[in-house]
Structure formats: structure tokens, C-alpha cells
Amino acid sequence: MNLGTPMLQRLPLYLRALRGMESEGASSVSAAGLAAVLGIDPIVVRKDLARTGVRGVPRRGFPLDRLIAALRRLTGADAEQTAVLVGVGKLGSALLGYPGFRRAGLTIVAGFDAAPERCQMILAGVPVFPVGTLTETCLRLGAALGILTVPADRAQRVADMLVAGGVRAIWNFTPAQLEVPDSVMVQREDLAVSLAVLLHRMHERERA
């Protein structure tokens, strides 16, 4: 099912909100109620939930357990994936310690760094290895995803090592444009771009 990027970006928000409702004892939710919690157009939420395949009950809404299960399938959270992270600096260390990855179905099984003092460490329960062992360790662990938090001038070389190690996707937190085979997906997270959008929206609101 081709859901489109905007909907895929909303699904984790739905899932997090629904889990919160479930923890508070709720058993059902309406599209309007979920929209109000997240500040999203109710029409958009209603269309998104319709694509989950879960049918709502009149005057009761959607059964929470079935909706959560459907969203987990759509987001891939019900299919555990393993990842390695390369570049255990401030950003990399923060990502290693982020508990939300496991809830989303992703487990980081190893970290890698070029600095000798960071190797052989255990950070947030994840062992850190020398970056020179990246390819062989990826092959041994069968990692599906590589998370890239290295300096931009090293990004392509590390991406090549990840590809040789058999990863099927790279989550790129560097500004570098990576060249990879068509069989490898790349998702780029440019913090500068996100900041520019936020600052522009702040400026426009202040002008209004």
C-alpha cells in the first residue's frame, strides 16, 4: 500500500497518542478526538484512519487495540529491524540513548567510531566498535539499517562500507549527498533545513 510521505509522517504521531490513551484506560477513540489531541484537521485524520482497514463503530469510534495494531503494521513497528550507528559523538550518543526507537520496532545493535577512546565502550547498552570493522560487523550481525552521524567529509566512505556490509537503508544525518546503489534507500535528515522552516514560520507569524 502506497501511503504517501505526508501520511507516513503522521502515523507515528497517531500511534504515540493512541498508546497514551490506552495507558489511561481508553478502549476506543473517534477521529475527531484524535484530531483534537494532535491539532490536525479532522478530515485528514478520518481519511488516514480509513486507510488502516479498521472500521469504526457509530457513536463509539475506533477500537483502540485494533487501531494500534494496524498502525504498527503500517509503520513497520511490528517487524523488528536491526540497525548500526556510525559516529558516536554528541548526536550519535543521543540517538543511541533514545528509547523511542525500540517502540518503533528498531533496535540499534552496534555503534562505530573512529576515535580509539570511544571504541570498546558500552553506551546506552550498545557496544561501540572501531569504524574499520564496520563492514564485517554489519555482515555478521545482519543489520538492515545504517544510521550515519559522521562528519560530512567522511559520509560517502562510511556509506560505501555500510552498503558493502549489506544494509538495505541508510538514515543520513549529515549534509552530504550520498551515492548508493538503487537497491539501498536513503532518508536524509537535514536539521538546518528543519530549523530554517521553523524560523520562517515564526517570522511570518510575528509579521501577521
Explain what the structure shows.
The chain has two domains: 5-75, Winged helix-like DNA-binding domain superfamily/Winged helix DNA-binding domain (Arc Repressor Mutant, subunit A, Orthogonal Bundle); 81-192, Rossmann fold (3-Layer(aba) Sandwich), CATH 3.40.50. A seven-stranded mixed beta sheet has the order 5-6-4-3-7-8-9, with helices on both faces. A two-stranded antiparallel ribbon has the order 1-2. By secondary structure, it is an alpha/beta fold. The mean pLDDT is 90. The chain is 47% helix and 18% strand. Helix 8 links the parallel strand 7 and strand 8. The protein is built from nine helices and nine strands. The chain has helices at residues 5-23, 31-38, 42-50, 64-75, 90-96, 100-103, 134-141, 152-164, 191-207, and strands at 28-29, 62-63, 81-86, 106-113, 122-123, 126-130, 145-148, 169-172, 185-188.
Question: What's the short version?
Answer:
The chain has 208 residues and is α/β, with parallel strands linked by helices. The chain contains 9 helices and 9 strands. Helix 8 (152-164) links the parallel strand 7 and strand 8 (169-172).
List the helices and strands and how they pair.
Elements: H1 5-23, E1 28-29, H2 31-38, H3 42-50, E2 62-63, H4 64-75, E3 81-86, H5 90-96, H6 100-103, E4 106-113, E5 122-123, E6 126-130, H7 134-141, E7 145-148, H8 152-164, E8 169-172, E9 185-188, H9 191-207
Parallel strand pairs: 3-4, 3-7, 4-6, 7-8, 8-9
Antiparallel strand pairs: 1-2, 5-6
